[in-house]
Amino acid sequence: MDSYSPPTHRVKGRLPPPRASGGRPIENPLDRVHREIAILKKLNHPNVVKLVEVLNDPAEDNFYMVFELLERGEVMEIPTDRPLSEDQAWAYFRDVVLGIEYLHYQKIIHRDIKPSNLLLGDNGHIKIADFGVCNEFDGKDAFLTNTAGTPAFMAPEALSTSRHKYSGKAADIWAMGITLYAFVYGKLPFHDDNIVVLYDKIRNSPLSFPPIPFVSDDLKDLISLMLEKNPAHRITLPDIKEHPWVTAGNQYLLPTEEENCILIEVTDEEVQSCVRSIPKLETLILIKCMLKKHSFQNPFRMNILYKEQFARTGRSHSAPGSYEFYLERKRSLDTSLPAVDEIEVSEDR
Questions:
Q1: Residue 79, class by beta-carbon neighbours within 10 Å (0-12 exposed, 13-18 middle, 19+ buried)?
Q2: What domains are there in the chain, each with its CATH number?
Q3: What is the pLDDT of residues 135-180, one digit of tens each?
Q4: Does residue 112 have an active-site annotation?
């Protein structure tokens, strides 16, 4: 039998990337990180915190993300005995909806939506912050298998032991539902000090609404639709935008997706230049602080305990651990640092 040689074809354009033995493209993980950073830096929406710069100290194994300063801080702390009024929750939640729609349009899943990641701008509108565990995706949705974010805000499907893929968009909707519940009730719908019991409640306990404060039936209906345990039956973002509570009975329609979103594109040059390398970043911060204080004494000379506390309070709100643990630690560590006195330093040091 004669051997068969298929006809040759001239290849035009870019050659496909080299592939591993399993047929998947070989990708440098750092390249993907740089691409995600380049996209985050170009996000431009009134309900999303602006990423100003990303710094890299070659001596460290970390990136430092510099966001715009919002001095009014997070929208609320929970638990609280002073929840938002339904009218105020309505205004804030509409901001969240538009911000999340914009992120999803840019193919970004936030994965850690909660009140402490919703900051108040000077104009009184909400801006979504903390992209420490966000995911970029291709196609129509992110199909996730791992867990990330704050346990009390995780969707039931993310806590499954089977590790089946689940929808990133639906998980964000669940976290928005938990957040909306917290807005008006000042507490979480599923709570326990034991994280194993907490996960079981999220997966299996029915949703209930306290009799006080009074909440309208439309709002309860929306929260119930968002906290549907089966993600296939959970309300979607387009349907949330048209819900009677969100539109106040069709009186106040939200902007369409086309009006709210413009797709971001990044160039190779933007990806390559998205991180600024600054050797000895701590030294740079020290010098700037000394110049600001008009003193050449080290303003960070403090005992080890305070240095450890300062470092720990700098963790992202997305750091692992139960929500209750975070709140307890926050109360104990978010204390005012003492005034720093100048210290005489001997010449031989």
A1: middle
A2: 70-260 (1.10.510.10), 281-333 (no CATH)
A3: 999 999 999 999 999 999 999 999 988 778 999 999 999 999 999 9
A4: yes
Tens digit of each residue's pLDDT (9 = 90 or more) over 288-323: 676 666 655 555 555 444 445 545 444 454 444 445
Q: What is the DSSP letter of 248?
A: T
Rounded to a whole number, what is the distance in angstroms from the first to the last CA of the chain?
86
Token look-up 């290849």 returns 11
* pLDDT tens-place string over residues 76-89: 999 999 999 999 99
Helices (H), the chain: 29-42, 86-105, 168-185, 195-204, 217-226, 237-241, 244-247, 257-260, 268-272, 281-293, 304-313, 323-333
Phi, psi of 201 (to 5 degrees): -65, -40
Burial 126-161 (b: 16+ CB within 10 A, else e): bbbbbbbbbbeeeeebbebeebbbbbbbbbbbbeee
Checking if the pLDDT of 274 tops 70, the result is: yes
Write the secondary structure of 59-83 as one string of H (helix), E (strand) and C (coil).
Answer: CCCCEEEEECCCCCCECCCCCCCCC
pLDDT given at position 300: 55
The pTM of this model reads: 0.76
Burial call 235-244: b when 16+ CB within 10 Å, e when fewer: bebeebbebe
**Whats the size of the chain, residue-wise?**
349
* Pairwise CA distance, residues 28 & 21, whole Å: 16
Catalytic residue among 95, 112, 130, 172: 112
Q: Strands 135-136 and 108-109: what pairing? A: antiparallel
Query: Which residue is it, tokens 């590790």?
Result: 163
Q: Average the pLDDT over 61-88 and give the result.
A: 93
Q: What is the mean pLDDT of residues 315-339?
A: 44
Which of 99, 103, 96, 98 minimizes the C-alpha distance to 39? 103
Q: Is the Cα dihedral 111, 112, 114, 118 positive or negative? A: negative
Is residue 271 exposed (0-12), middle (13-18) or buried (19+ Cβ within 10 Å)?
Answer: middle
